[in-house]
């Protein structure tokens, strides 16, 4: 539509210009007959000198010899063609001009009786080479724009992006919280879907973090925070979508960056190395990302439980230490797009990552019938290794069917994930009363599993005008998984299979979806968007070990409605409603047992049901910067971790179950403040009320809490162009499922300096300076189950990044379009 408007405006200007020339010359009242004048024709085609593509809407002016005044003018069409008809005989010059190109003039064009039609052939325009003066970025923080169905955090051109990674920027987005494992919460709620350029990433939380840590923030255009997604998006995702939009690579030739860094968490040292390459030539636009990393982490934890039995009470006190290291060959992400012509393009993207995990979990456990009076001690040492492989591929087509903005796109995806794991458990039992002999129990597990995911989708958009458009599309996906968990006694010379804790589980799932979405401007002040999505899920879970089969077939409808009201230039209000669902993680449906110690293990739940969410929102935006967001969510069949306590055996079995229902009412305020010219501040405040009710340990339990959090990021430009960032956060006590979560806080600080004409960036950072990011959790109810864990968030790091073409951009247009992988 934009191109059509430009063309009409150009034609209108040309008509007015030449009409004005005729009026200025005057029109006689009477004219004498004259003999017909011989005329000719001039034609040609304008293209880009490098890409060879037509340059549409080039201004072409016809000038008489020796004159700078146009006698005629026109614009090139979509094929770059132009034509002057009815040209009187004579000698002319033709001028070609377009924004971003050098003006070009062809002289000595003779239109004669012998040669009335002159074909100029191909005229090649060269890109303008005028060097712009250096512009100093004054805005240290990103700008925030509230649209009808999303909040857009603009990153491009801000100091926040300079020298940082995409992960750094995402962690500082309003209302976003990411833990050490890469799990994301939005406005205090989990169940967030992450996309790149509107395409799902197919990655686990930890692998997604690795990908974003290896991506320069300079490649980001903006982050869309979509708390109530429209019908165009998959219905999956309880709390919303974070869509990271990347810049398009518009730099001819090769550009990119190389980087390296190291972190120290006061226990372990990790490092990362990587590079990004982008290449654009003619119709090809390609990218390659490489990431080599040795990632480390761990935790120190205490677990306290009190089991109140009918005859006696058992006290359980445990101290635990965990460590992990993950390292592998380079993770490779590459792709290319090929423009068939101005309106049609095809492309592919592939991602391959394989790594080896080595981890241990060492516990000291004391049991007794009175506080601090123990009669048994267990020394349990767990060691496990796992080989993880992820192969993701996508093929894409995009067609622009007309100049009005009608588009058709299609995606085909295939994902293959495998895990090959094994673990050894060494348990040593000591009787502290002296009445029983000490003993030991050794166990071994082998847990190979894998997933194949297939998906196909098509989307169509048709605008009826600048104010109205319709979208519709369809998607089909299939998941097939094979999980063979084998548990062995390892106390003799040969392994002995334990059939009670062994399980071979197969799971197949198909999802068929279709949607329609309509948006329209109503008058000058209102914009309406309404849509409906339907998704049918057909699944079958089968345990070959127990012969248990669970089959499901359910159809869901997911409406969405958005109304944007523009009260004034500085004040607007958005109203929204959407229905969402969250399907169970595939692993959570597998009834296998994950062993941690003799008194603690985790077990899957094949009867787990999906949860549904009704989300209502009202967003007020002031001066296009300040926002106040009121949200209410009614969550049915909440999926949450539930510890089942066997009081007589002092045993705790963790599983994912359905809490009866949940309510969440929240108020979020985003307040940017410019304290001084060189000091910007971005502040987010969240206040929410969460309430859950469920049947827990044979009793009705209610868990309710007013939760509040504060997040403030200070960006300060110091002397010598040193950028300093201070990030402070506080999260008050909260409620989730059957857990009461204690408060936590942290303070991060970082410095960044650029060298070599801003090509080399040096960053130094320190995170969680005072170890306040500690996770303390307790269950509701009479029996006590508390744990206090610290995941080594305190760390210091140094990073170097060299950009061998400043301002390099990346255009991985095609990311995967599946939500299914996020549930593996």
From TrEMBL:
<keyword id="KW-0998">Cell outer membrane</keyword>
<feature type="domain" description="Outer membrane protein beta-barrel">
    <location>
        <begin position="400"/>
        <end position="802"/>
    </location>
</feature>
<dbReference type="InterPro" id="IPR036942">
    <property type="entry name" value="Beta-barrel_TonB_sf"/>
</dbReference>
<dbReference type="Pfam" id="PF13620">
    <property type="entry name" value="CarboxypepD_reg"/>
</dbReference>
<keyword id="KW-0732">Signal</keyword>
<feature type="signal peptide">
    <location>
        <begin position="1"/>
        <end position="24"/>
    </location>
</feature>
<keyword id="KW-0675">Receptor</keyword>
<dbReference type="Pfam" id="PF14905">
    <property type="entry name" value="OMP_b-brl_3"/>
</dbReference>
<dbReference type="InterPro" id="IPR008969">
    <property type="entry name" value="CarboxyPept-like_regulatory"/>
</dbReference>
<protein>
    <submittedName>
        <fullName>TonB-dependent receptor</fullName>
    </submittedName>
</protein>
<keyword id="KW-0472">Membrane</keyword>
<dbReference type="InterPro" id="IPR037066">
    <property type="entry name" value="Plug_dom_sf"/>
</dbReference>
<dbReference type="InterPro" id="IPR041700">
    <property type="entry name" value="OMP_b-brl_3"/>
</dbReference>
């Amino acid at each position: 539509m934009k191109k059509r408007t430009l063309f009409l405006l150009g034609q209108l200007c040309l008509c007015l210009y030449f009409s004005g020339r005729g009026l200025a010359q005057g029109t006689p009242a009477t004219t004498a007959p004259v003999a017909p004048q011989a005329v000719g024709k001039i034609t040609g085609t304008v293209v880009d000198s490098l890409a060879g593509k037509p340059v549409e809407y080039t201004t072409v002016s016809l000038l008489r010899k020796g004159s700078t005044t146009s006698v005629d003018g026109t614009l090139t069409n979509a094929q770059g063609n132009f034509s002057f008809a009815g040209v009187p005989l004579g000698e002319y010059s033709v001028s070609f001009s377009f924004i971003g190109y050098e003006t070009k003039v062809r002289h000595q064009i003779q239109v004669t009786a012998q040669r009335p039609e002159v074909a100029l052939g191909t005229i090649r325009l060269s890109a303008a080479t005028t060097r712009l003066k250096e512009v100093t970025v004054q805005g240290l923080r990103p700008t925030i724009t509230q649209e009808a169905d999303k909040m857009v955090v603009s990153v491009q051109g801000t100091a926040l992006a300079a020298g940082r990674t995409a992960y750094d920027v995402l962690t500082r987005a309003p209302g976003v919280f990411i833990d050490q494992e890469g799990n994301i919460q939005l406005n205090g709620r989990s169940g967030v879907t992450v996309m790149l350029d509107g395409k799902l990433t197919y990655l686990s939380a930890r692998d997604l973090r690795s990908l974003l840590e290896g991506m320069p923030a300079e490649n980001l255009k903006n982050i869309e925070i979509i708390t109530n997604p429209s019908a165009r998006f998959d219905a999956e995702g309880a709390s919303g979508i974070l869509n990271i939009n990347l810049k398009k690579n518009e730099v001819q030739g090769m550009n990119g960056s190389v980087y390296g860094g190291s972190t120290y968490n006061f226990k372990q040292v990790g490092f990362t190395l990587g590079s990004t390459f982008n290449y654009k030539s003619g119709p090809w636009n390609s990218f390659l990302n490489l990431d080599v990393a040795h990632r480390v982490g761990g935790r120190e934890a205490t677990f306290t439980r009190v089991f109140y039995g009918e005859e006696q009470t058992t006290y359980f006190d445990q101290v635990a230490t965990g460590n992990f290291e993950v390292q592998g060959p380079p993770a490779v992400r590459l792709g290319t797009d090929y423009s068939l012509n101005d309106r049609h393009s095809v492309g592919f993207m592939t991602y391959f990552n394989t790594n080896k995990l080595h981890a241990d979990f060492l516990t000291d456990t004391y049991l007794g019938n009175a506080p601090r009076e123990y009669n048994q001690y267990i020394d349990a040492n767990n060691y496990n290794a796992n080989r993880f492989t992820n192969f993701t591929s996508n093929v894409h087509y995009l067609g622009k069917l007309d100049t009005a903005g009608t588009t058709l796109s299609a995606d085909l995806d295939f994902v293959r994930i495998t895990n090959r794991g094994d673990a050894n458990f060494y348990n040593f039992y000591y009787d502290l009363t002296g009445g029983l002999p000490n003993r030991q129990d050794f166990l071994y597990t082998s847990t190979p599993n894998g997933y194949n995911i297939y998906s196909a989708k098509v989307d169509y958009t048709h605008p009826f005008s600048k104010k109205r458009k319709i979208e519709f599309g369809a998607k089909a996906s299939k998941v097939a998984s094979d999980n063979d968990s084998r548990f062995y006694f390892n106390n003799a010379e040969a392994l002995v299979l334990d059939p009670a804790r062994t399980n071979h589980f197969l799971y197949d799932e198909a999802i068929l979806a279709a949607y329609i979405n309509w948006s329209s401007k109503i008058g000058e002040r209102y914009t309406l968007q309404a849509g409906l999505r339907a998704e049918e899920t057909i699944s079958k879970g089968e345990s070959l070990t127990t012969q248990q089969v669970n089959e499901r077939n359910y159809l869901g409808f997911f409406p969405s409605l958005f109304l944007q009201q523009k009260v004034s230039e500085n004040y607007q209000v958005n109203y929204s409603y959407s229905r969402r669902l969250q399907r169970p993680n595939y692993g959570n449906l597998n009834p296998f047992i994950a062993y941690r110690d003799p008194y603690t293990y985790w077990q899957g739940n094949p009867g787990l049901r999906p949860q549904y969410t009704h989300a209502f929102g009202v967003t007020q935006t002031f001066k296009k910067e300040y926002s106040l967001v009121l949200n209410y969510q009614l969550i049915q069949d909440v999926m949450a971790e539930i510890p089942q306590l066997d009081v007589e055996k002092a045993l705790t079995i963790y599983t994912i179950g359905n809490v009866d229902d949940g309510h969440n009412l929240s108020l979020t305020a985003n307040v940017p403040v410019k304290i001084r010219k060189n000091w910007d501040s971005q502040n987010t405040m969240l206040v929410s009320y969460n309430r859950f009710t469920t049947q827990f340990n044979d009793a009705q339990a209610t868990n309710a809490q007013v939760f509040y959090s504060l997040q403030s990021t200070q960006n300060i430009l110091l002397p010598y162009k040193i950028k300093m960032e201070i990030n402070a956060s506080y999260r008050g006590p909260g409620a989730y499922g059957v857990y009461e979560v204690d408060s936590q806080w942290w303070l991060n600080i970082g410095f960044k300096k650029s060298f070599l004409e801003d090509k080399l960036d040096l960053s130094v950072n320190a995170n969680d300076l005072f170890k306040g990011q500690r996770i303390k959790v307790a269950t509701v109810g009479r029996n006590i189950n508390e744990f206090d864990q610290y995941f080594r968030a305190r760390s210091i790091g140094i990073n170097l990044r060299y950009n061998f073409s400043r301002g390099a951009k990346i255009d991985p247009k095609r990311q995967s379009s599946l939500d299914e992988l996020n549930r593996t």
